[in-house]
Amino acid sequence: MSEPSESDRLTALEEKLAQAKARQAPAKPHTEEHYSQAQLAWRMVIELVAGLGIGFGIGFGLDALLGTRPWLMMVFTILGFIAGVKTMIRSAEEVQRSEVEKAATPDAADGQDKG
Question: In which family does this protein belong, per the annotation (predicted)?
């Protein structure tokens, strides 16, 4: 019988090492999780501030045009705040939905591997 060539043995060894490293490597480094949470927090803050700013701008502009100095600015600032909060809630639901899907995916794969 002929033995496998040295290059074939090295290739097989490299494949086994790569598989072992893949099993032992963490799924996601801690720093990446931290940055993604920080990015989410900043996104939500920016959405809220943008809603307030746009509402204030529209109200201030309409007050200047119509001469109703504080009233429309207050109304549109409140409407901008409400829009910002709704956008924040929508973003939080989107993140929660993706986390639930991510958590469900490995469970389904584990169930298939066992069967």
Answer: Belongs to the bacterial AtpI family.
